[in-house]
Amino acid sequence: MFYYVLKYVVLGPLLRVLFRPRIEGLENIPEEGAAIVAGNHLSFSDHFLMPAILKRRITFLAKAEYFTGPGIKGRLTAFFFRSAGQIPVDRSGKDAGQAAIREGLGVLGKGELLGIYPEGTRSHDGRLYKGKVGVAVMAITAQVPVIPCAMVGTFEIQPPGQVVPKIKRVTIRFGKPLDFSRYAGMENQKAAIRAVTDEIMYAILGLSGQEYVDEYAAKVKAAEQEAVPPKKFPKLRR
Questions:
Q1: Range with the lowest mean pLDDT among 53-67, 73-87, 148-162, 195-209?
Q2: Separation in Å, CA 124 to CA 2, 27, 62, 147, 155
């Protein structure tokens, strides 16, 4: 119930007025039945802008940290994400990927739309990074179409670290549904799920026009952070 109040009464109309999103390819979203919407992830604003313009309800797999933050802000964030129907996924540990796949298949099994960011995290520099294969496993296992999506301009309105987004027009593009029925029964084959994932990422790239990096975003970000020398503070004179 609260999801629809946010979408049609509170947040949705406000976002449409402030950001005046250009929407392209909305007809590619099926009116009914299970499907995966796979998009690039440039900004915290992505969580709100895409659901606001879709006619159907969409459920995202959200990182568990959004549900466990401390203090009033943490509780409000957790309340918002739960009320919006988002599913917390613990991304730590060796079983994290399997947990996300299990939750995603549950959504698809109910004939609903599942939203996922194959990169696994927000891009820290605006580039498009290598996709993780969970999206392919779900698409093949559930035998559902994948609709590629590109958020354009959201990095500029709210890059990492910026709390309040800039008021600027953005574009949301949806591509033609991708059919992976030819891979039926191959969800455990590494070559197959890598090929499917790369095809999805290539479709997103064609919509977004980003620079592509054939590395995982989390790995690149961690390497860049390690390369930054620690700050040196002057010694205090006694």
A1: 73-87
A2: 31, 30, 17, 24, 9
